Amino acid sequence: METEVSHEAEEYLEAIYKLQRRRGVAKTTELASELNVVPGSVTNTIEHLKKHGLVEHKPYRGVTLTAKGEKIALGILRRHRLAERLLVDILNVEWSSVHENACKLEHALTKEVIMLLEKRLGYPKFCPHGNPIPSEHGEIEDEENYPLIEANINETHMVARITDEKREKLLVLASKGIKPGVTVRVVERKPFSMVLYVAGKKCSLNLDVASSVSVKNMEDIRNARQKKAVI
User: Fold this and answer.
1) Which of 89, 161, 186, 221 lies 20 to 30 A from 146 at CA?
2) Contact, 169 vs 161, CB < 8 A?
3) Model confidence pLDDT, tens digit, residues 141-175
4) CATH topology for 7-65?
5) In CATH terms, is domain 146-221 a member of 2.30.30.90?
């Protein structure tokens, strides 16, 4: 029998999962920032989730999901990312503006509707921001990539995913033409920014926004395609 949780608890579990994937643990200060709430309310909600066996909390170290909590979080992510695909692929909403609307829509989607939606969308593997969509059984297909801020200078890379989906960051990236599938080349690093060629156009990107972008090396992609063609 599935555990029923409130919409607020769902938001917390989803945020903890994302932070845990990025940093290994979710700190309460990071959760407060991610969810735009005061730290005190984070502490109270975490204690509530802990009582229900959904998280583990070690003071001064952070919060992690239990197996039970991770299962629920993956279900929430599945609804959220399919909702994003619905908004972009069927309703033609700009990819940079769907995250907040999907947060509201995901709570209204039943399991039956999600299955129909997934079929209608053609069983997509990734959301519009390049993040993997969990399967019905909680499996997640993650591809190897690395942060843009660690990319070698003068090598061509393809944008794989945007890990921080906050509207303000997505709008900055969209204004510079940076989205999944676009090629970029780092030409210069500065103390607080980096200079890129994005699809042939030069632009500057601050490191805070750049840290949300993950890429793949184009040479590695070509080699993988050649290897697959030979097989």
Assistant:
1) 89
2) no
3) 878 899 999 999 999 999 999 998 888 999 999 99
4) Arc Repressor Mutant, subunit A (1.10.10)
5) yes
User: What CA–CA distance (Å, rounded) separates 215 from 82?
Assistant: 22
- Return the closest-CA partner of residue 160 out of 221, 87, 94: 221
Q: Do you know the residue count of the chain? A: 231
pLDDT at 2 over 60: no
Sign, CA torsion 45/68/24/188: negative
Neighbours of 72 (CB within 10 A): 24
Beta bridge partners of 132: 126
User: Phi and psi dihedrals of 161, rounded to 5?
Assistant: -160, 160
Boundaries of every domain in the chain: 7-65, 146-221
What gap in Å lies between CA 162 and CA 128, rounded to an integer?
9
Q: Where are the alpha helices (DSSP H) in the chain?
A: 7-23, 28-35, 39-51, 67-85, 99-105, 111-121, 167-175, 207-210, 218-230
Strand duo 213-217 + 156-162: pairing: antiparallel
C-alpha distances in angstroms, 54 versus 16, 29, 65? 11, 19, 6
Reported pTM: 0.86
Report d(CA 224, CA 93) in Å as an integer: 33
* Count of other CB atoms within 10 angstroms of residue 135: 14
Q: What is the DSSP string of 187-223?
A: EEE-SSEEEEEETTEEEEEEHHHHTTEEEEEHHHHHH
